[in-house]
Amino acid sequence: MTTRDLSQKQLNFARVSIVCVDIVKLPLKDILNIFIKPTELVNNIKACQSLLDGEFKLNPDQRRKCSLNSTNLPDYSNFDVTLLYKLIRHLCPDPSLGPTNKWGKKPKQNDVCVVDDIERIRELRNTSFAHTESAEISDDDFKKFWRDAKCMMNRCQQFTTSNGCKNDYNQLLIDLDRKTFTFEEYMSQKERSKAIYISGDTQVLCGEKTCFKAEITLEQDVYLPVNWEKLDKSFRKELDISSDKYKGSNSRELFIHCVCKEDEGRYQAVISRNQDVKIYSNEIYLCAQGGEEDKGEYTCTVLNAVGLVSKTVKLGIPSAEIRPTSNVIFGSDTRLDCSVSGNPNPYRVEWQKSDDGTIFSPIDIDSDRYFGGSTDPGFPCLLLRKATFSDQQYYQVAVWNVIGKNTSNPVLLKVTGSRPNISEGTCTVLDRSVRLRFNVFLYDESPPVIDVYWTKNRKKLDTSIRDGKYSEKNNDGKSLIIKNVTESDAGRYQLTAANAVGDTKSEVIKLAVPEVLLDNFQRQEDGRWRFTMTINSVPTPHYVQWSIKNTSETFQPLNVNAEEYKGTSSLFPHPVLIIQHIERQKSCVFELEVKNRIGRATKQMQGEMLQEYIQEIKKPLASCEIEDSTKLEEAKTPEQFLWILVNENILTKSDVVAMQFALKQTNCEELEKKCVEYAQQWKAMHYFETPPEPGSRNVYFHVVANLQNFSPEDELKIKKTVAKIIGCSLEEIKVHGYLPSNSFLLVLSIKEIYIKRLLAMRQHDKDTLIKLNIDYLKDDFMTIRLMEKSELTVHRPMIHHTKGILEPPIESCVIEKAKTKSELTGEIYSESDNPIEFIKLIYELDDRFPTEKISRLKYLIQVSCNVEDVTLLEEAKTVFECFMILGKEGIISPSDIIVLQFLLKQTKCEKLERMCLEYAQQNKALCYYEEPPETGFQKLHFHVLGEINKYNKDDTTKIMKTVASIVGCSEKDISICGILPSSSFFVVLSIKEIWIKRLKSLNQHDNDKLSKLNIDYFKDDLGQTAGVKAKPISIFHRPKDIFEPSNKLCLVKKRKIQSHW
């Protein structure tokens, strides 16, 4: 039945019913909220005695709605007219807010204040109940009702709007006046206008929960109890709402849990005024839909006089299938489509995702991330916008019908893409301009490049200005043109390329003034001296010139065609100066001038200085124990001197201590710097010291031994001993260096909290360190001697090398896959034997090694490796043959590629060297590795008596254990931080300062521990020294009879070089 089928009186009733039940409640709710906020309601009620136990007290249902016994905030939208009227009447704080004709009485026609309208709302509502039975209102009564309602709502609108409320009551009346009604809607309003009305979800799946709510419209202040009943034909059954089936139910709400077929039927609420008078609500029918037990085939047969007809249908759970999709490129949109079917038809679809394909969680397709997707059972789809790697998950669809639930096939969405790649850069000079160039390229299935820009010193350059300083050309890569280059253009230039995955920064191209270095010098076979320079210049220089200054005050261009300087060249990057009679050039000054577009640099060399290079290099070498001193006297070139040191086994690929000293003595700072760089890069033996970390201090342990005989095991022993003495862990002590002494220093890094314990060690702890050949130790402030002067023994000079092959450098260790740095501490190597991978490596090196460098490779093998059959090496024509010779000689093996690293590094084959390192990591082969120091540690230098090449890993472990025992820490609080060589040496331990004081008062027991480690004394950076045989001291002093790390390394027999190094 449509609107045309309803009479005008029925339409009038439907509109009046909606006004009285729904619309008039809104201004009451707003007025209550104006004067009393929901957060204040409970306190206001508790302060009003009449609402608690007076004539107008709240009934249990009203108390529940007001949250009197709950922590939840009351919801005014759930309050009915009766409750709103009662609260406004008794809790309004404004005395003037009262009706003109008093509360509870009908207002007069001229009473038009807002409270009068509140009374009118109550009266208006009662009027609608008078027509409940007939459910009809005449046109005259309706017109009067509608006119009064509009005037009343308009006045309420003015009051609530002026107080910030936004509900538009007038518009609601206008919309209601235009509304059309169906017969069902009319019947619903008829039911609602009764004294009690129930509503709720009546179509419920088996196994789920439903709730019916009762609304009482009677204007009664007394509490009316409500009972719930289920109707079965003509029988009524009152429900026990205290049972588990109806758990949580009350007189206003009926909860039915786990709905099943037995729950199907009609339900009704009943108000009992007394035993004889009952008011019944409308009836609602609960339909339990579906269930697994309903699955199967159903047949319907129709029979008449002619015959019969049958039809069979199959009911079951639905099915779903996601269509496969291709890989998704990072940053792009993609869509997953799914087909759903079932009988009965599915009524619900849900998209789900999972990281591992086992546990799935629902997807909110209404979120921005998936906006545009659909859960319509007819055509479900999932739209992913700007896919990222986090979207690479498993996806499936869950689908329901009244029979049950099913899930689709899981689909793994693969997201591909990588950041842009940038090739190595180039810098070329174009007249007065410079062009910097990189190639930017992408891997397959990667998002496109969206931004490319240049930076100078990390600041973005503006290349868009026409005829500006900078311009870009992208025809053959990404190029930056810098016009009219001057000194102001010096800086660090970098290209950044970005796509949806992220950005990539190129290597830095540094434009700077040229750097000029003396690379090497040697005497040629014809007797001339050859000085080779190295120019480091970006951009490339446009001017290189040799000049000479003799008697004049200015430099003049050198005549490179003169016989005296024949062979001199200015070729970049290695200009050469040839001098025939160097002894005649004492008064001359040679200058190499280099200019590029950034600026100018010069390198000056006095003729007298060049001659002194040759003579001075003999002096420090005289301090070494060279068996054949005649060869030293006859040597006239640096090359000859170096061969003497190599043949005497004083200078090796793993020991550059002697060369460090010689270059330092001859003031060749640049060459000495190269020597140190070599040692750091190739883990060769040299002097070093690392600054302490914050919260740590360096302590110097004097080791009466030769640094060359000191092993990582000896280093570890000192760390462990110190850790044990001060009571810290081994990880809290770091080795921070080795310093020269008449022996050597082991540098341990120890957390500062343990330093005090170490400095206050007992004699027993000192004895433990003494047994480790430690005679003293020191930190940044004091020195602790472990034995007296009379107990010290005399040791031979530091530079004393035995003939034969030396052990690998003490800092070298194996890089093992999946190992942490802490696990690598102190390891030398692990055996690994994988000949197949090793042969593959050799073949790959042979394929990629530059043929023009083979002669250089053979020369390096000859001078640096002890190859017995030199003839085979000379006849070798390929890199493979050269490396196989090293393999047969046992110099390289599947488990040791250190020599390969060295040869590739010296021939400047960096990429091939990285291949070796990758091989070592994968196959646990011997290679170079160095663990950086950690924060929170302080270094202590332990002086170890004896030669370092006689120390092993166990000896170092003993020292670490002893120190840990002394200070009371674990071995994890101590770590090796460095070795400082000498005939004895200092071990520098970094120890937390809180443990330092413990070392100040070592007892005899601690002294014995240190002395067993060959430690005779230790000191701090302030020079305060303590010996392991000394009694516990509280004030420390620097012993005058101990050779300090600040002194020059003693290479000369029977004398000390006192100048500071």
Q: How many β-strand runs?
A: 53
Give the integer mean of the pLDDT values: 77
Range of helix content: 25-40%
Number of helices: 28
Shape: elongated
- How far apart the termini lie comes to 110 Å
Oligomer designation: single chain
Number of domains: 7
Estimated structural class? alpha+beta
Largest sheet: 10 strands, mixed
Q: What fraction of the residues are assigned to beta strands by DSSP?
A: 25-35%
- Gyration radius (Cα, Å) is 48 Å
Low-confidence stretches: 789-832, 1029-1061
Q: Can you describe this structure in just a few lines?
A:
By secondary structure, the protein is α+β, with helices and mostly antiparallel strands. The chain is built from 28 helices and 53 strands.
Question: How would you portray this structure in words?
Answer:
With 1061 residues, the protein is of the alpha+beta class. It folds into 7 domains: 194-248 and 256-289, Sandwich (Immunoglobulin-like); 319-416, Immunoglobulins (Immunoglobulin-like); 421-510, Immunoglobulin-like (Sandwich), CATH 2.60.40.10; 515-613, Immunoglobulin-like; 617-682, no CATH class; 689-807 and 931-1020, no CATH class; 813-927, Death Domain, Fas (Orthogonal Bundle), CATH 1.10.533. The strands form 14 sheets. Strands 40, 41, 43, 44, 45, 46, 49, 51, 52 and 53 form a 10-stranded mixed beta sheet that branches. The protein is elongated and about 135 Å long.
Structure characteristics:
Immunoglobulin-like; 28 helices; alpha+beta; elongated; 1061 residues; disordered C terminus; six-stranded mixed sheet; ten-stranded mixed sheet; 7 domains; 53 strands; Ig-like domain-containing protein; 27% helix
